[in-house]
Amino acid sequence: MPVNHLNHLSHLHHRNRLAGIPVAAALVLGLAAPAYAGTGYTQGGSGTEQSGSSDQGSGTIAAGVKVRTNLKAKSGASPVTPVDTNWTPPLCWTQPKFSGKEYKADSKKTALRDPKTGKPLPGWDKGKDFHEKDKGAWWFRTYDRDQIMSGDPDTPKRMEDCAGLPGIVWVPEGDPKPQKAISPEVLSGIAFKAMKLPAAPVKLSPAANRQIVNLDTKVKFEAPLDRVWVTATFDDFGVNVAATTVATPVALKIDAGTEFADPQSCTYDLRKDGDGYAVDSGDKGCNVTYRKSSGDGTYPLKAQITWKVTWTDSADPDGPAQQPALPDGLSTFEQDVTVKEIQAINR
């Protein structure tokens, strides 16, 4: 086995040991590069991080993809749930990582070492053209580590599909980009995965712990919801791409959590109201009425917002929507509802 390939395997072993991923899994896929590193080869922790006390969320994904959102830090939001359960964000792509000099330095740092001296074994760079004096960049196959570690049974098959991408390839300045190069489309999926959405701002009247059989439950929409957007950008080695994924709230669904309710669910359309989207939930035809006591237990009432999700191929959330389309998103809030007979309350 060539020494420089051993160097890659050593590098892979070192980084995979840190990530908890067996080296054998990588070898089965024929990876020629340290594809799972948390320092640029693998996108890790794709959620946005809140920075200080700012209202703006921002963060840097380990692979060099930066994300920012307009969602306020204390919004009580949770990760978006795609309506299409078969949709998955990008698992792999290629992107520039090193100049020639940087790649040589990184290869030396991760080369196999003499256990006695700690120095790289002779020949670690033998036969390797690092392109130190050339203009261009080394591009790497890059993975989303969160998905690899998720335990999803479909991930191994998807990783096999990724194996067709170049592991490491030198691309001279001005030459065409490698297969599945990082792009606005890739970034739109990364931004979708990083998105968090607030739950439905609803209040029940009577309160959730004071529901009464055969009494209308009024659902008050407490405050308008604004659009939520996440912008993902990559700007390095002359590659400057961005995408903004935008979620617009379009509907509120109330699920009573039991068959002993009339109706069992209600759906309200949200409409633009000033700076946000809201609903007049006073429609008597769509207010839940419980027909049976919850006894010693409760009913799990669910309030769910459907968000229409689009994306632009820039950092502008108001840019024209692009294809392929992203799935709609959901945000859900559940609360336990206690329903009593009126006689139980008046005794």
Please characterize this protein's 3D structure.
There is one protein chain. The protein is elongated and about 90 Å long. The chain is about 20% helix and about 35% strand. It is an alpha+beta fold. Strand 2 and strand 3 (about 65-70) form a beta hairpin. The protein contains seven helices and 22 strands. Strands 2, 3, 5, 13, 14, 16, 20 and 21 form an eight-stranded antiparallel sheet that branches. Strands 1, 6, 7 and 8 form a four-stranded mixed sheet that branches. A four-stranded antiparallel sheet has the order 10-12-19-15, with no helix packed on it.
Topology:
Layout: H1 3-19, H2 23-28, E1 42-43, E2 57-60, E3 66-69, E4 78-79, E5 81-82, E6 92-98, H3 100-109, E7 136-144, H4 145-148, H5 155-162, E8 168-172, H6 184-194, E9 196-197, E10 202-205, E11 211-212, E12 216-221, E13 228-236, E14 239-255, E15 261-262, E16 265-269, E17 271-273, E18 276-278, E19 288-290, E20 299-312, E21 329-337, E22 339-340, H7 342-346
Parallel strand pairs: 1-7, 11-22
Antiparallel strand pairs: 2-3, 3-13, 4-9, 5-21, 6-7, 7-8, 10-12, 12-19, 13-14, 14-16, 14-20, 15-19, 17-18, 20-21
Name the features.
single chain, alpha+beta, 4-stranded mixed β-sheet, elongated
Number of helices: 7
SS-derived structural category: alpha+beta
The overall average pLDDT, rounded, is: 82
Please outline the major beta sheet. Answer: 8 strands, antiparallel
Q: Please tell me how large the radius of gyration is.
A: 26 Å
**Order of secondary-structure elements:** HHEEEEEEHEHHEHEEEEEEEEEEEEEEH
What is the first-to-last residue Cα distance? 85 Å
Helix content: 10-25%
Oligomer: single chain
Strand content: 25-35%
Number of strands: 22
General form: elongated
Question: Stretches where pLDDT falls below 50 for ≥5 residues?
Answer: 1-42, 44-58
